[in-house]
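Bug #77: duplicate submission created two jobs. Keeping one. Sequence:
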Amino acid sequence: IAALILKGGFKAGSGGWCGGGIYFATTRHDTDSKAIGPHSHTGFIIVATVDVGKVLHMSKTCDRKMAGKNLAKRGYDSIVFNPGDGDEHIVYSSDR
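Kept job's structure:
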């Protein structure tokens, strides 16, 4: 997956705690317990600068039905939430 990201950029996934977005951890340590779903891959960390814009803070269960259009209608660009193992930032556009 890392080689594909480096070649073609980040792309929104199809699901997750906050719907199909692009998920970022805030520290290297936080990645130990993230990206653990059945289609996730491990073994590579990409350091990225992300333009989070206006951030919506969500509860630890977030909203699995969230999408970029829904978020934009509410006046936000990204989400931050903590499912219990560190903050995650989610954007829904690879332009961010």
